[in-house]
Amino acid sequence: MNLFDYFASNVKRYPDKTALICQSEAVTYKDLQCCSIRLAGLLWRHGVRKGSKVAVLLHNSMDFALCMLAAAKLGAVIVPMNPTLPANHVKRAFSHADVEFVITRTETSIRHENFRDVLPGDKILSIDESLSRNLMQNGGDGQILPTLPYDVEPECDYLITMTSGSTSEPKPIVLSQKTKIKRSLEGAKNFYDLSDSEVILIGSPMYHSLAFRLTWLPLLIGGTGVILPKFRPVLWLETVQTYGITFTIAVSSQLGMILDEIKTNSYNLTSLRKIVSSSAALDAEIKGQLLSKLDCEFHECYGTSEIGIATNLSPQDSAKKLKSVGKPLPYVVLKIVDEDDRELPIGNEGEIVCKTATAFSGYYKKHEVTERSMRGGYFHTGDMGKLDEDGFLYYLGRKDDVIITGAINVYPRDIEDVLASFEGIRESAVIGVADSHFGEAILAVIVADKKIDEKQLRRYCAQYLADYQQPMAYEFVKELPKNEMGKIIKRKLKDQFHGYDATAFLRKIMKGPHENK
Length: 517
Hints:
The protein is an alpha/beta fold. Helix content is 34%, strand content 26%.
C-alpha cells in the first residue's frame, strides 16, 4: 500500500473520529479524506501529475497537512520549505529541486515576486483563507479527481527535503512513500508501542522532516494529531493539558525551554505517556531534570534526515546511560570508523556510519555526492561518536566541529556539557579559532542569565576538564545563531569570530612580571 492507501484504510475504520486538530479547527478522518481528494483534483487541473515537484511554503496548518495528503494521492513529490526564507534562498532551492509548482499564502507570493522569474503564474497556487474550510464548504461529494491513469507505487519518490547543514549549497534529500511509511510505522510499533488511541503533538515546523513524519504518524496508525501553529513553551504545555496529548517527538532545544517553564508553573501533564528527544543530543543535566519532572517514558534518539531514527535510548537505560543516545534499532547496523573507513574498536572515537532499511533514495541529481556519502552501503553521517561495551552510542558532535589544538582532537560537546552545569550559564557553543601556536584555540561563546565571574568559571573548567580541553577564551553574547529547529549554527559563530585572538589571556599569564609592565 502507498501512503494514501494506509490513510484511507483508517478512514474506513474510523470515519467520524477526529484525525487532525489545528487551533480551533478539528477534522474527522472522513472529512480529511474528502478535502484532500478535492485538493488533489484542484492540483490535477493545474497540471500536477505523478513525479511533479510541488513546493509548499506554508506555516504549520491544516492546509499543510492537506497538501501532504493530496501529493501522496497524486504521486507528486512535495518540496516543503520555510516560508520565511529570503527570496534568493528560495530561488536557489527551487533550482536544486526542479520545482514545477508552488503552494503558498498570497502574502508570501507577493513578497517573493521572483517566483515568477522561475515559474509561470498559473503554476503558483496562492491561498488567502483556509483551504480545508473552502474545500469543505464548496465540495459536493468530493469526486472531482478523475481516475488516475497510473498507479502510485510505494516506491515512488514523495518528498524532497533540503539539508539543514552548514554549507551554502543545499543538498536535496529524496525519500519515497515506502520510506516514509517505514519510518513512521517501525517506530510506532517496535519501540514506542503506539496504538490508535494516541493523541500526538506536532510541535516543530512541518517543513522539517521530523514534524512531517509526526503529521503522518497518527494518520497511519488511526490516532489523532494536534498541530501546533508555532512553538512556544507555554502553548506547548497548554496544548498537552487541553487535548490530553499522549505522545510526541520534541526537539532537544524545545525541551530545555519546556523544563524552564515547568520549574516555575504548574501544568497537568498526566496524559503524556511517552516523549522522545530528537534533532540534537540533549544536555545530560537537562535530561536528568526532565526525568525527575515528567512522569512518563522518556526516550532519546539519534538520526539524520538521510537515515531517519537510528538509535533509541529507552527509559530503562536512561539513568545508567545518561550521556548516551541509545542503542541501534533492530534494522540498523551502526559502526564507528576512522578516516579510511576502517571499523574502530569499542570505545574509540570516529565517524558514525549506518546501514538501515529507512535510508533515503539519494540526493536529488547529485549522484557523486550520494556515492561519497553511501560508501560500502553505509551512510557516512559526518557526525562523530563512540560505542561502549554494551553497544550504546555516544554522540560527540559534527566532524567539522572537532577542534584540533596542539595536535589533539577536542570535542566541543565535552566542554559544553561542563559549561551547562555551571550556575548562571543558559547555553554555550564551543568553537575552534585559528591560532599560530596551537593550530586552533578553544573559544567558548556563552549566553548567561546573570553576570559570570570568569575567574571562577576558569577554575571550574580546570576542575572538570583535561588541560587540553579548557577554553582559552570566553565571550558572552545575548544569543547564539540557530536554525529553525533550534540547532546552533557554529559556522556563523566561526565567521563572527574569524581572526579572534583566543590565546591573548594565556600569553599574558605566561609572560614574566617584567614583561607585563
